[in-house]
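Handout, page 2. Input:
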Amino acid sequence: MEKFRKKLRVGISIGDINGVGMEVICKTFIDKRMLEFCTPIVFGSGKVASYHRKVNEIKNFSFNIIDRFKDVNEKQANLLNCWNEDVEIKLGESTEASAKYAFISLEKAKESLKNNDIDVLITSPINKSSIQKIQKDFIGHTEYLDQNFNGKAVMMMISDNMKIAFVTSHVPLSEVPKLLTIEKITEKLKSINTTLIQDFGIRRPKIAVIGLNPHAGEDGMLGLEEEKIIIPAIQKSKEVNNILSFGPYPADSFFIPSNLNRFDAILSMYHDQGLIPFKTLSFSQGVNYTSGLNIVRTSPVHGTAYDIAGKNIANEQSFRESVFIACDILKKRRAYFSLKENSLNPKKSED
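Output:
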């Protein structure tokens, strides 16, 4: 049986150095109770961290600055130096330097996750467009991790109110109808179902599917995607994969408490269809989870928040929840596979 650390190592990419990432990191781990169940390791620069602590007037907090994992202190928040040069920080601005060092941090964290030097990954907010200027194929964290780890990544938003995933994510709205297929929807439903079982301990999940068109197509009057693609996908998921999927439901009337309480997760057709209600109901405590991969990665739902960077008013709740949820998911996943392994390999009874 594989041996695990008693206390999980939480790897954290620094995000955009001109945004609020370092502020919410510091505010999260200034609470010593966080160190009771995890050991944080930030991938960044001691100089950058010192600047943000000073400008945000964060007192009574400091990192254990290290250059090697063997120097990790389990009783303190750690920062692994990924570069030593001085970096010009321009709070509230998107710069080439902020993109460069955000990507360096992410790369270092990714490699450490591959090498099992950390157990889970929390990514701080980045500016996707600025990174794309120096990394042409970069679309976002989800797509980046999908290319670097096993499985098929599914973006899932998590809060106390709901868990919601998306058939399509970072694509223009005009492309969405062309990207919807029976196969893609059934694949997403299968991935969500597996995630709910192994990562959240839900034995028989129920998944709601949202329609694409107004009023879920109104029996074909307002669009045919429901009849030709979405409904057949739901039926196939039930009949072939034994998944309890229901719908399609109209997006304009679905997101009310009685509906949210009936289902364990929701599958929306495109990015804003799901994220508008999610962020409206769960912005401060919501978490972005990259499900479907062999690793665990979460992040806060907010962005770089350039407009409030350096003002010491950023709310760290979403980041803190990202840490809680990542650790909880990994523990549940390990317990699931341990139970599965034991059920497949029962000990022989003694004569």
